[in-house]
């Protein structure tokens, strides 16, 4: 390849990059920085799938746990965040309750946690999805049909702590299909009575219309107020009580 073609290729690449929104470039930059900061917790490969929280979002969770001393942590949707939170809890007081609907994925997560010696810090809860008691089949926000699903509450009642939850991560159930776009709405109505007076709620995938509507409805129906952090992992975050910035 001659020098002219090389310069042309570099020029085209720069043009594509410069056309991307600034928020997207910041998101990528923050992810790269977060990966560097997360590295001390793991010295080997972690299965980071396309459904996982972004690195910057994981870093924010670990900041909250460390700085604001979160000890009773619940996440809906197991994955890369499970591994990092469990690794952090090795040197801290606290416990993670991780809820997962897919038994095959839950088995993979369990094996990885066990192999890494982290199971003592995690209660992995396998809870199948069922029709949610927190919505209607036809939907009360839009005219088109919407399916409301949530984790089996009978399982959750047995496994989740009844009070004192100070960090909630909502990255499940899956909500990428249009008919399931409000699947994560039940998280806050269900967990609200179990929350500590000082706590953090994090919702992933806030760039999607479904999650944006979910946050709007949460704010309409509760006293929680959310901040959208697109460049810090594509999440929405709410704090109650006194807490340091994360």
TrEMBL record:
The keyword Disulfide bond does not apply. One of its GO terms (biological process) is methylation. Keywords: Methyltransferase, Transferase. Coiled coil: none annotated. The keyword Methyltransferase applies. GO terms for molecular function: methyltransferase activity. Pfam families: Methyltransf_24 (PF13578). This is Class I SAM-dependent methyltransferase. It comes from Persicimonas caeni.
């Amino acid at each position: 390849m001659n020098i002219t073609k090389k310069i042309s290729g570099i020029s085209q690449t720069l043009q594509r990059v410069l056309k991307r929104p600034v928020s997207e470039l910041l998101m990528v930059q923050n992810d790269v920085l977060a990966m560097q900061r997360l590295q001390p917790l793991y010295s080997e490969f972690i299965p980071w799938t396309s459904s996982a929280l972004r690195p910057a979002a994981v870093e924010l969770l670990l900041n909250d746990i460390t700085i604001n001393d979160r000890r009773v942590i619940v996440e809906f949707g197991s994955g890369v965040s499970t591994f990092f939170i469990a690794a952090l809890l090795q040197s801290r007081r606290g416990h993670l309750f991780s809820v997962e609907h897919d038994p095959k994925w839950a088995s993979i997560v369990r094996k990885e946690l066990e192999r890494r010696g982290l199971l003592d810090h995690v209660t992995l809860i396998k809870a199948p999805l069922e029709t949610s008691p927190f919505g209607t089949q036809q939907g009360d926000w839009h005219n088109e049909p919407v399916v409301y699903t949530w984790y089996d509450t009978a399982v959750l009642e047995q496994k989740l702590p009844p009070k004192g939850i100070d960090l909630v991560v909502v990255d499940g159930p899956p909500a990428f299909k249009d008919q399931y776009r409000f699947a994560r709405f039940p998280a806050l109505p269900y967990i609200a009575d179990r929350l500590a007076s000082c706590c953090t709620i994090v919702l992933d995938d806030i760039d999607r219309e479904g999650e944006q509507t979910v946050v709007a409805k949460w704010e309409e129906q509760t006293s929680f107020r959310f901040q959208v952090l697109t460049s810090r992992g594509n999440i929405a975050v709410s704090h109650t009580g006194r807490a340091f910035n994360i």
